Amino acid sequence: MTTALSSVLLPIALAAVAVVLLLGLINMMRGGSPNRSQRLMRLRVLLQLVAIAVTMAAVWAIGR
Prior knowledge:
Helix 1 runs antiparallel to helix 2 (34-63). By secondary structure, this protein is an all-alpha fold. The protein contains 2 helices and no strands. 91% of the residues lie in helices and 0% in strands. The model has no long low-confidence stretch (mean pLDDT 90). It has helices at 2-29, 34-63. It starts with a helix and ends with a helix. It has one domain (2-63).
């Protein structure tokens, strides 16, 4: 379980956060819809929560 969390799920979660962040920046630079920017920001915050939860689960599993 520890290997799956730290070597598979964590990079996926971090990559998802980075992709959504880049999409938000691109939307903002192009002068896109403010509604889309809000949606992307909310999605980014949710994905950050998931990434933190996966990180904490991996740290907990390693410590066991």
